[in-house]
Amino acid sequence: MNTSDRRPRRHRSGPIRHGRQRTPSPVGAILKGLAVVLAVALVSIGSVAAYAINSLAQQVTANAVDLGGGTDAAPPPPPVLGAFEGGFNLLVVGTDNDPNQGDSFGERDATLNDVNILLHVSADHKNAVVVSFPRDLVISHPECTDPDTGEVFDAMSAQPLNDAWERGGLACVNSTIENLTGLDINYAAATSFDGVIEMTNAVGGVPVCLNEPIFDADSGLDLPAGTSVIEGQMALSFLRNRHGVGDGSDLARIASQQQYLSSMARTLKSANTLTDITKLYGLAQAAASNIKLSTSLSSLDSMVSLALTMKDVDLNNIVFVQYPSGSSSADPNKVVPVQDLADELFAKVQADQPFTLADDSTGTGSTVVPTDPATPADPGTETPATDAPATDAPATNAPVEAAPEVIDGLKGQTAAEQTCASAFSD
User: Which keywords does this chain's UniProt record carry (predicted)?
Assistant: First the structure.
């Protein structure tokens, strides 16, 4: 579907109230974590008033979470206004409940980590991988301690990933993903519904594409076909929407979230966003008030360094993938790891090796927007003739960089790809 001739529509809406919902899904949140560090970095460099920066730093530090287990001590001290040396892993968790959000999104019995996204940046800062983990992924869980009560939860097997938050908050989710992937994750952040709304408002909206109109009363999503610029409540509805897109599964919702996050990455890296100090400081304020960061990420130096590490990664080299999973024979509403493919994926991540996706690898309910063909040269313009004899280009001994390996079977897209969501279909 080509949407280039359609004017993006901007949608905002007021709060939407629903009845009792046990497990409504929130938003995929990885670039909201990146937004705050990018904002703080550029605001700091832009010489915004010192008292405003100090106020922001105090907010972030007050909400910081200790990941425990000595993990926070692992990263080396960040340079001042310089990129990190080497790569890093950052976990961003989206929760479905917050004591401060009231009943605007329905009542629920517990707080669950419904969105779990891991960002890996390579040591040379040329590539990044963003892995979305299904909330219903049945895996083993390590022992965790509740930071508020001190209660110790024993390790357990064959339980959904979104049980981890109730066993110890952000630190427990972080440990569970480390246990699953074999990676050391030194940085983490958590956000909820209100954080999504404030962050999308601060960035000024994100373009999303629909192949046909989608209306879903459960999430409140109501958008026409084509491209719309969404923010606030409508952005949250797009990211929460499950029953209106693809096959109605959580995996289809992940594909929509990856479309949104890819578009947000392009928005954040656009010239207008990166040079608008007012918008950037708005992002930082929204994040400081609504996102909890790990103590390893709560200093201004750390946030500045993380932003400077990410800012030059090419969009074509940011790969969004779904954690490989398949249907559970024990429960049709759950999924289990496809272990061979997961091992292949994380072997690449662990070794810091880039990879690409196969053709037609977009997730369920998502299609790639065809790119326009290259504009042909003006037929009225001729290359001027020259009397100089043709010469061969000088030989060079520079090594030719091998193309990244394709991992067949992974679902996802790059940040440079523009995709459209399809309405629910049986």
Answer: Membrane, Transmembrane, Transmembrane helix
